[in-house]
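Predict structure. Chain length: 198.
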Amino acid sequence: MIGFLRGRLAAKQPPQLVLDVGGVGYEVEAPMSTFYGLPAVGAEVQLHTHLVVREDAHVLYGFGTERERSLFRELIKVSGVGPRIALAILSGVTVDEFHRCVEGHDVASLVRVPGIGRKTAERLVIELRDRLKGLAGEAFVPGSGATGTAGAAQAEAFAALVALGYKPPEVTRLLQKVDPSVSGTEELIRHALRAAAS
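Prediction complete.
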């Protein structure tokens, strides 16, 4: 099992990025919460990883925080939830928001995530209620660690817009339209909503 990768970010195109580790390019799939925290191409980055072995491929998934990877691992244990749906969940809500949905039986918020139907959302709430307690730990800050405050604001704005009902690909486009000089979660959301209305 590959536990983590540290190297130069060679390329990033959601949901995939390429990490140059000692001259070897690792293709890694990552949730949008991790993407928003990534540095510029060429910078060094470290990702927690999880390898999924299928008949037709070996797929490496990367996460900005240990808590994201832990949640991903718990999600793919749930019947009917594969790596793709797990990535969609991590792209649509933060780890803490997911905890709150499970603890509060908030099935409606989970159903807003693309690929999650009502039955799957109910199964997630029931099956993960007890298992998630082991994931609690230090407070999770989106885009924390090597990602910086700009990444945190982007991740929080992304999650908020998804919670408002926008689909993740649409949110990505809206946030890309926002001037890079705009900082702060509320300002990012305000500018993204203006872009949606125009």
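Summary: The domain at 4-63 is CATH 2.40.50.140 (OB fold (Dihydrolipoamide Acetyltransferase, E2P)).
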